[in-house]
Amino acid sequence: MASFTSKKTNLYIFLSAVFLTNAIIAEIIGVKIFSAETLLGVPPAQLHLLGDFVLDFNLTAGVVIWPFVFITSDIINEYYGFKGVKKISYITAGFIAYSFFIIYFVTTLPPAQFWLDVNKTDAVGNPMNINNAFAMIFRQGLGIIIGSITAFMVGQLLDATVFQSLKRITGSRKIWLRATGSTLVSQLIDSFVVLTIAFYVFGNWPFKQVIAVAIVNYIYKFFIAVALTPVLYIAHYLIDNYLGKEHAKELANESSMSSFM
Asked: How far apart are CA 39 and CA 65, in angstroms?
């Protein structure tokens, strides 16, 4: 049988891999905007926010899996503390930057003529330049990249800090409170930071529009964070069985004592 030390290491590697994979995928697919109302088959929300702005629930595709990033972050925080979250957050931010660099480089490569020829029309026969489409989909603006990475780091470190602060109050009880509470606080900041940097500082959005869109995004994240609470308990149950309840409790206690050291 594997030792507790080996299991502890393997668990951290697995959780970090889940965290890293979901974060990078969320960043790459984030260029697509989808209609939540159409997906659910309901009329547009038509929310009147900040005067002239009428908004529907049009969301970036990245938000579909982004909540799982924060759930994984909370699980890492529970068992490995602030240092464990900080380590994987810095690594992930580095790989996100690396991914964007590689994607940008690939979009500058000259396309093969046969690739352009066999993809010169879409499914219904309309003319199409697949190389331009490829570049438009995968190449994001500098402002979005900077805003995304900045919001990711601010959100992660804030989430980890609030989580540990709540854990000191609740102890081993009320997992839902510290996990959901930390996510709601961090996502509030994350939602505003990424849009402000990407579309106000580097873009041409008026600040009122940034606030209005951020509010819609946060409403979605709020409800998803609450709805995914059972997933958190299932994950804790599986981890406790994998490590052994006593070992899992010992690891969680150690994470609290060494969180900010």
From this structure: 16
How far is Cα 224 from Cα 166, in angstroms, rounded to an integer? 20
Among candidate residues 86, 79, 90, 83, the one with its CA nearest the CA of residue 9? 79
* pTM score: 0.83
Nearest to 213 by CA among 3, 21, 33: 33
Which amino acid, one-letter code, is at 221? K
pLDDT in tens, the chain (261 residues): 568 888 899 999 999 999 999 999 988 887 787 888 888 898 887 877 666 677 778 777 888 888 888 889 888 988 888 888 889 999 999 998 898 889 889 999 999 999 999 999 888 888 989 999 888 877 765 567 777 788 888 888 888 788 778 777 776 667 777 777 777 788 788 778 877 887 788 777 788 777 877 887 788 877 887 888 888 889 888 998 888 888 888 887 776 665 544
Give me 179's structure tokens. 């996990």
For residue 62, give the DSSP letter. Answer: G
Quick count: other Cβ atoms within 10 Å of Cβ 126? 8
As a whole number of angstroms, the longest Cα–Cα distance in the chain is 64
Q: Alpha helices, DSSP H only, in the chain?
A: 4-29, 36-40, 66-107, 113-118, 130-138, 142-170, 175-195, 207-227, 229-243, 245-257
Q: What is the DSSP letter of 31?
A: T
In the chain, what are the domain boundaries?
4-112+143-257
Q: What CATH class does 4-112+143-257 carry?
A: mainly alpha
- Report yes or no: 105 and 138 within 8 Å, Cβ to Cβ: no
Q: In the structure encoding, which two tokens stand for residue 113, read together?
A: 């003529």
